[in-house]
Design a protein that fits this description.
The protein contains 8 helices and 17 strands. It is α+β, with helices and mostly antiparallel strands. The strands form 4 sheets. Strands 7, 8, 9, 10, 13, 14, 15, 16 and 17 form a 9-stranded mixed sheet that branches. Strands 3-2-5-6 form a 4-stranded antiparallel sheet, with no helix packed on it. Strand 15 and strand 16 (258-259) form a beta hairpin.
C-alpha cells in the first residue's frame, strides 16, 4: 500500500463477511454537509459562555466563587459592571476583573494524518521530519499530542493546548475507541480472530482482547482491521506477534469519533465544535 494512494478517502477499514462492523466499514463520526477545511487557520467558535464559567476557566477561582465576585461588582463587560447571574459573554467582549482585562487562552484542537517515519517526541520539535513541523501553521501556541503513535506508524494524531482534555485522555480510566489497519508478514488465520476477540492473549500477566478484528480480503489476507479500547498500542502488537505474526505496517484510521475522511496523508485540520464537544463528553 503506497502513501501516494492513501489520500483517497478511506472510511475506516472494511471487514470480511465473517466480521461485520459498521464502524470498521464506514468509520464513526464522519462529517456531513461538506468536509472540514484542510491546513486552514483555526476556526472561530461562536458559542456564548456564562460569565462565571468564563472567569472560572481562567483559573482565577471556582465557578461558585466567580458568582460571588460578580455579585460584589468587581467584574465588568465592555466597561459596564455586571452583577446579573447567568450573564453570557459573547465573542469579542472585553471582560475585566478588578480593573484588569482578563482573556482566556484560545483552545486549539488539530487532527493530523501522520505520514510514516515522522518523529513524535517533543525534543524533535524543530526537526523537519517531526509531526510538529506538519502542524506548525495551525497555531503559534505550543500543543501536545493526545495518545501519540510511534514514529514508524501512520494515521490519526490529535494535538491540543487544552490541558483539561490532555489530563482527561491521560487518565487510565478513559476508554477511547480506536481502529487500526495492520499489515502482517503473512496471511492471518481465521481461527485467531476468536482468540483475539474472545479468549485473549496473555501479555505481561494481563489478558489482552480486542473488540473486533476482521481480515481485509480486499487488501490481502495479511491485512487486518482491529478495533479496541483502553489498551496501549504496544499490547495489541505484542498479542499479534505472540500468535506468530510480524507487524509490518500500522495505520490508525479511527480515533474516538474521528476518521481520516477527506484528510490526505501529511495534512491537518481543526476540529469542529461538535467534535470537540464529543471528546469532552467521553
Amino acid at each position: 500500500m503506497q502513501d501516494k494512494n492513501e489520500n483517497k478517502s478511506r472510511r475506516g477499514v472494511k471487514p470480511n463477511n465473517g466480521g461485520k462492523s459498521n464502524s470498521l466499514r464506514k468509520g464513526k463520526g464522519g462529517q456531513r454537509g461538506g468536509a472540514p477545511k484542510r491546513n486552514a487557520p483555526m476556526p472561530k467558535f461562536s458559542e456564548d459562555v456564562r460569565l462565571n464559567k468564563y472567569i472560572a476557566n481562567l483559573g482565577i477561582c471556582s465557578r461558585r466563587e466567580a458568582d460571588v465576585l460578580i455579585a460584589t461588582g468587581v467584574v465588568s463587560v465592555n466597561g459596564e459592571i455586571v452583577t446579573e447571574m447567568g450573564y453570557k459573554v459573547k465573542p469579542g467582549d472585553v471582560v475585566k476583573y478588578d480593573g484588569a482585562t482578563v482573556k482566556p487562552e484560545k483552545k486549539v484542537y488539530v487532527l493530523l494524518n501522520k505520514p510514516k517515519d515522522f518523529a513524535v517526541n517533543k525534543v524533535d520539535y524543530l526537526d523537519k521530519k517531526s509531526v510538529y513541523s506538519l502542524v506548525k501553521k495551525a497555531t503559534r501556541d505550543q500543543m501536545a499530542m493526545i495518545d501519540p503513535i510511534d514514529k514508524v506508524s501512520k494515521g490519526l494524531v490529535l494535538f491540543t493546548n487544552d490541558q483539561d482534555l490532555l489530563n482527561k485522555f491521560h487518565s487510565p480510566t478513559i476508554k477511547v475507541h480506536q481502529v487500526l489497519q495492520i499489515t502482517l508478514n503473512k496471511a492471518f488465520d481465521q481461527e485467531n480472530i476468536k482468540v483475539m476477540t474472545e479468549t485473549g492473549v496473555v501479555i505481561n500477566q494481563n489478558r489482552v482482547t480486542v473488540e473486533k478484528l476482521s481480515i481485509l480480503t480486499n487488501k490481502g489476507d495479511n491485512e487486518i482491521g482491529v478495533e479496541f479500547r483502553a489498551q496501549k498500542h504496544k499490547s495489541i502488537y505484542n498479542s499479534i506477534e505472540k500468535l506468530g505474526y510480524q507487524v509490518l505496517k500500522v495505520d490508525r484510521v479511527g480515533f474516538a469519533s474521528l476518521t481520516k475522511k477527506d484528510l490526505p496523508r501529511g495534512d491537518f485540520r481543526h476540529l469542529t465544535e461538535k467534535e470537540v464537544a464529543f471528546l469532552k463528553m467521553l
